[in-house]
Amino acid sequence: MTRLNARIPEGPVANKWTSYKSACKLVNPNNKRKLDIIVVGTGLAGASAAASLGELGYKVKVFCYQDSPRRAHSIAAQGGINAAKNYPNDGDSAFRLFYDTIKGGDYRAREANVYRLAQVSNQIIDLCVAQGVPFAREYGGLLANRSFGGAQVSRTFYARGQTGQQLLLGAYSALSRQIALGNVTLFNRRDVLDTVLVDGKARGIIARNLVTGEIERHAAHAVVLASGGYGNVFFLSTNAMGSNVTPAWSAYKKGAMFANPSFTQIHPTCIPVHGDAQSKLTLMSESLRNDGRIWVPRKMADVEKLRTQSIKPSDIPEEDRDYYLERRYPAFGNLVPRDVASRAAKERCDAGFGVGRTGVAVFLDFADAIKRKGHDTIDALYGNLFQMYEQIVAENPYETPMMIYPAVHYTMGGLWVDYDLMTTVPGLFALGECNFSDHGANRLGASALMQGLADGYFILPYTIGNYLAAEIHTPRFNPDASEFTLAAQSVTDRLKQMKSCGGKESVDTFHRRLGKIMWEYCGMARNDAGLTEALYQITELRHEYARGVNIPGGLDEYNPELEKACRVADFIELGELMVRDAQQRKESCGGHFREEYQTSEGEALRNDERFAFVGAWEYKGREIAASLHREELQFNEIKLSQRSYK
Amino acid sequence: MNFKLKIWRQKKAAAKGEMVTYAVSEISSDSSFFEMLDALNQQLITTGGEPVAFDHDCREGICGTCSLYINGRPHGPLKGVTTCQLHMRSFKDGDTIHIEPWRAKAFPIIRDLIVDRSSLDKIIQAGGYVSVNTGGVPDANTIPVPKEKSEAAMDAAACIGCGACVAACSNAAAMLFIGAKVSHLALLPQGKVEAAKRVQKMVACMDELGFGNCSNTYACEAECPKGISVTNIARMNRQFIGAKLFSEREKIVRVSL
To answer: Which of B46, B63, B67, B181 to mutate to test the interface with A (most CBs of A within 10 A)?
Structure first.
């Protein structure tokens, strides 16, 4: 029997949010002051939620592992943020944004949540402008838009190639204001290692002070997780080095279900891997696909000459180039969704047409755009990205095409949440990339920023009130209660045990091995045999890790290796769940491509009859397999069809 | 490539620190500076040593977490890049590289190469925002903003808050950091409303936190990985003086009433 109830309001999809807001319970200002909320994470979702809740008068404690809330990895988002403003008069609307997002996600997201996202998107832009976010503007002084993958309208607002940075600094400034006013207390350099439940409700967390090593207990009336995605399970990804699944994973082990863990986004435009010492991958914004054309040589002879450097890319005549996205998808061309573009690159490289030293790269060429628009225009649009590329690769993209290859970038899966963004644990909410709710099996470009800010600024402030209205008689919690003592003790025991196993191999060694398994068997293409092999290898790795990891330094001091050790232990367990999820989903959809299920043209082949559901996993214990719950997806507004970008 | 590294080691804030020499070998010229330090740390872990603690996160030049004085320069020898964007191809094989933490009174050392930069957060908390709440704001296109103004605001807003300007300054001043935020907001109509109050509060906070005065050497601009211009300091000074005069005048008017 399923325990999942998404609690979607009744009525037509366009009215659900309005009717929810008119009917939801409210907390009066006097009572808000008596209610504590913990927010974990200070990216777009966490910072915007903490600031907005502080403005409303709740007492908020906000946690981040970074030295400053401004450094959360939302800062690295480059391209832009979508909104259905329709400023360019090109036919956009909330319905179209909703439609594109559902279709882009290959029909594996919940209609009601996505429609709400599209509805509040415009408010985000208004608020950000009021905060002083310096979005790009036209000469008339009004806001500029550009187009992005998976859409035929221009609905993306941007601040050069630093949109995430500017939006995060906006949310950070609002957060800073609330900190100064005393409504929010900041706990930086903290790792949140456990979620504490009292009588079945989330009532607090256990955090480790990364500077002193102290294990701290923090209590509240509700806990909000906005701790981001888990792409670092692959070791190499575009995530920050510290990005981790630990807060979400601790919640999973306390009863919050984890939905669609195998839905991972492999971003098509990243700088290719250079070698074994590589520690992370760098994204080149999708916005580059607006003007860059992706190609590989058509003739094998040219591929070989490129590799021996006997010719330059520009020596290959137009007719000998294979602009494979334009060839395969004439309607969307280089602007097909990310999963489609990534797989197409893999297909060409697997067929032997890859370029670069390793043969695992394709060209992203700006020569035509520079000719058409001029050097200065291209510089104004992408200058900082070109500079970043040149810094890493030591080649000038104005003169020679960029080389790119897909890399792990975003995770659509996450904690299962209902319409209120509440997990299966009462009082525990999940926002932004940390939840599963809006992107289905593939996220469209410029939608992560939109979702993070929608959740934090405009959705949670309403839905958390609906929950807290019943908590106004609950006095402030005492973190000395036995539940907190037990949780703190188990965290301490776990750290001691990991530290004392006395192994030889470093944490990174294990992490790299995990990454290789995940990339090979649970990456851009998956199959049953490979997934079975992955499961076996990960189990082995988990046992080896438990007896063989070497963590230098002490528990009660600044110890980066210990931090990594906790994160990697959780990644190994998560990896196992991802593989199980990929194995049970016997269809291809979005970023989840099962080789057994494809059309004759090599496109993803969904099975709506059997798999139009959200797969939510319930933790059952250390050596016991997690159990799968299904939330059947109802499509009332949109007819399911095979995605076509031809 | 092979390198000799001289690195500042300090167990904790209260402990005494010292420069310690290490050697690393077989480093790829394509490796980033941090990948080279990763290699050193792996070497230290396997030989029973304690890895060097350093701040880093996004490794793509935008989060501002990384710091490091490399051969006496914040973020190393290249102009316009952060430490994490520095590659070993920028050094010569066999080089000796000196690596130290940011040195400033307002940035106490936590461990090895890691410093506490919360003072920069405190400065923002003092006034680096527009006082609007979520909800109840006008449509984004209600107030047109001249493109030049918005571009200039963006130039200033590109600051990543790494603190290289403070580390570069002989007086450890945070003028470029504050100047960037004050300018970013004052250039936009949305931020203009509180501009006078903002600059005064932020400057007062900076003084309290133990940052020095502007040294007028422009070292901050030279070492800023994002190329934030010192014209932002000039703009801040104008704003500050204007605000002071205005507030004095306001007092007089109030008294005379």
So the answer is: B63
User: Hey, are the CB atoms on B137 and A48 less than 8 Å from each other?
Assistant: no
| Arithmetic mean of pLDDT over chain B | 95
Domain positions in chain B: 3-111, 118-256
Residues of chain A with pLDDT below 50 are: 1
Judge whether residue B248 has pLDDT over 70. Answer: no
Of A72, A132, A388, the CB nearest to B60: A388
pLDDT value of position A381: 84
> Does the distance separating the beta carbons of B129 and A277 come in below 8 Å?
no
Token pair of A386 as six digits: 């070109």
pLDDT value of residue B252: 61
Instruction: Give the amino acid at B11.
Output: K
β-strand A428-430 against A222-225: which pairing, if any? Answer: parallel
Determine whether A542 is an active site residue.
no
> What mean pLDDT comes out for the span B39-57?
96
Do the chains contact at A275 and B31, CB–CB below 8 Å? yes
Whether B3-111 and B118-256 share one fold: the answer is no
User: What's the fold here for domain B118-256?
Assistant: Fumarate Reductase Iron-sulfur Protein; Chain B, domain 2 (1.10.1060)
pLDDT category, B253, cuts 50, 70, 90?
low
What value, to the nearest 5°, has the Cα angle with vertex A531 and ends A106 and A633?
30
Q: Which of A55, A70, A394 sits opposite B161 (nearest CB)?
A: A70
Integer-rounded Cα Rg, in Å, for chain B is: 21
**Any idea which of A418-422, B174-178, B190-194, B238-242 has the lowest mean pLDDT?**
B238-242
- Min Cα separation B47/chain A (Å): 10
Cβ atoms of residues A46 and A248 within 8 Å: no
CATH of B3-111, one of 3.40.1160.10, 3.10.20.30, 3.40.50.11810, 2.40.50.140: 3.10.20.30
> The pTM is what?
0.96
Name the residue type at position A636: N
A190, A217, A321, A338: the catalytic one is A338
* Helix (H) or strand (E) run with residue B19 in it: strand B18-24
Asked if A558's CB is within 8 angstroms of B12's CB, the reply is yes
Q: How many CB atoms lie within 10 A of CB A312?
A: 12
Q: Is the ipTM of this complex over 0.85?
A: yes
Q: What local confidence, expressed as pLDDT, does residue A161 receive?
A: 86
